[in-house]
Design a protein that fits this description.
Order of helices and strands: EHEHEEEHEH
CATH superfamily: ph1033 like domains
CATH topology: ph1033 like fold
Largest sheet: 6 strands, mixed
Number of strands: 6
Strand order of the largest sheet: 2-5-4-3-1-6
CATH architecture: Roll
Radius of gyration: 15 Å
Distance between the termini: 14 Å
DNA sequence: GCCAACGTTGGC
DNA sequence: GCCAACGTTGGC
């Protein structure tokens, strides 16, 4: 059973176009326990992901991605030269985990946050909840499908 | 740049 | 285990 997710990235750090260029990527740098737990315990190969660009004008869903490798230790936490280094994580007892993603398709229509807020079909979506800032979050199938409809990418599912 | 929301840290 | 201080996220 396919599960659905939303993952945030700041486009100046890692845009969707970079995922397309790379072919796949490891989702490193998540340092939040709730987000970690989703990646370590819940996300499965084949799960579908809304790739969201945050901290940009306007914030928007940039494309669809798919989980292509399940949770494994985030090795950037072991690397003292990485900005994601965490002295409390080590290979014997890793604290942080990541998954790998591959691109599916960029959105054909821009799906901007203000448009999502105005869409009654997306009522209750975690992304739209006040004050939420979780960078990895589950999405209801119905909400996922509606975002795909808004982005005109249903044909890619 | 502001600031609300919320997660983390650390003293006690 | 409480909670104040502090740091970060991320929309606006």
């Amino acid at each position: 059973m396919t599960q659905y997710w939303l993952m945030k990235s700041e486009p100046h750090v890692y845009p969707y176009e970079q995922l397309v260029a790379d072919g796949s990527t490891h989702w490193d740098g998540v340092r939040n326990y709730q987000a970690r737990n989703f990646m370590r315990d819940k996300m499965k190969i084949g799960d579908m992901v809304l790739f969201y660009h945050s901290n940009t004008k306007p914030p928007h869903v940039a494309g669809l991605a798919r989980v292509c490798k399940e949770g494994y230790p985030d090795f950037t936490a072991f690397d003292e030269s990485s900005k994601y280094y965490d002295s409390k994580s080590n290979p014997e007892n890793p604290r942080w985990f990541m998954v790998d993603l591959e691109p599916v398709t960029a959105m054909n229509n821009s799906v901007d946050l203000p448009d999502m807020r105005e869409n009654p079909a997306l009522e209750g979506m975690a992304l739209l909840a006040r004050g939420q800032r979780l960078s990895v979050q589950p999405v209801d199938k119905e909400h996922f499908m509606e975002v795909c409809r808004m982005g005109d990418v249903e044909g890619s599912l």
